[in-house]
Prior knowledge:
Number of helices: 14
Structural class: alpha/beta
Strand order of the largest sheet: 9-8-10-11-7-12-13
Helix content: 25-40%
Amino acid sequence: xxxxxxxxxxxxxxxxxxxxxxxxxxxxxxxxxxxxxxxxxxxxxxxxxxxxxxxxxxxxxxxxxxxxxxxxxxxxxxxxxxxxxxxxxxxxxxxxxxxxxxxxxxxxxxxxxxxxxxxxxxxxxxxxxxxxxxxxxxxxxxxxxxxxxxxxxxxxxxxxxxxxxxxxxxxxxxxxxxxxxxxxxxxxxxxxxxxxxxxxxxxxxxxxxxxxxxxxxxxxxxxxxxxxxxxxxxxxxxxxxxxxxxxxxxxxxxxxxxxxxxxxxxxxxxxxxxxxxxxxxxxxxxxxxxxxxxxxxxxxxxxxxxxxxxxxxxxxxxxxxxxxxxxxxxxxxxxxxxxxxxxxxxxxxxxxxxxxxxxxxxxxxxxxxxxxxx
Length: 374
């Protein structure tokens, strides 16, 4: 058993999402969004290098010694699957282990908006799941793939970095390919997938112009493409896609988004009211003729108004979703306040008043007295 497995076992038993190991500090656990140290000594450089070396393959070790960061999946002998990032910093090596549940969570268990399930009924076009790092994008996509796998007969090709949830084929055939192991890049993976009779292509991250361009081509040519971006709103997602491609392709990109983008789901993870978990809260954009026109005329700043008015189509702004969850008493209002865009509407729910903006109770200074001499 690798020595590092003891830390991973402890993290799994505690229900943490991540285990952090770095030189000069004790091992840390990410618990419901907070980073907490475990009762252990500060890790020494030689000690941690030894822990990490025990779980690396020869090729991984060679890459790491040449200065490359590593991303890979690891199955602990104590049980549990992890997505791993190994890196170097000023004081030595470090590693982050993201815990991957043994079972793929269902869309119902994640309590995502019902429209997310309906997105799985489409046969072609692009669906983007976005958010900052650690907001559950991969989990949402895994739940969508599992739903497709159980309810339709499809050829699903998943391109990941690294493979996280393992999907045994059920009603569908699921082919999972890993960056660096099976494919040299996401763009090459999409190009290859289009020759493999796919119905659905999942792209782990639309991280560069070539990958975005290939994913757009796949969506335009009759495939359902699911992908992620590190963007924090529907508008920023659309702007990122447009800005990522060359200027000479700008009109073509806007036309693609207007015609083939089906939806953008942007999510954050907010603490639950009991403080023992986090819940995904989503902003949802569904493509409509009105939004398509705003994209083509470069008026994306007006899209939030369409989301606000599109509740009957399953759309919602993040602030609307946060307020609804507060009203349902499913999330911590203080944590919700930190994610809100227009914070004024949330101030009356906040229990930790130190979070609120300070008010100058002294009021403005009195104006200087008028000079009566004349």
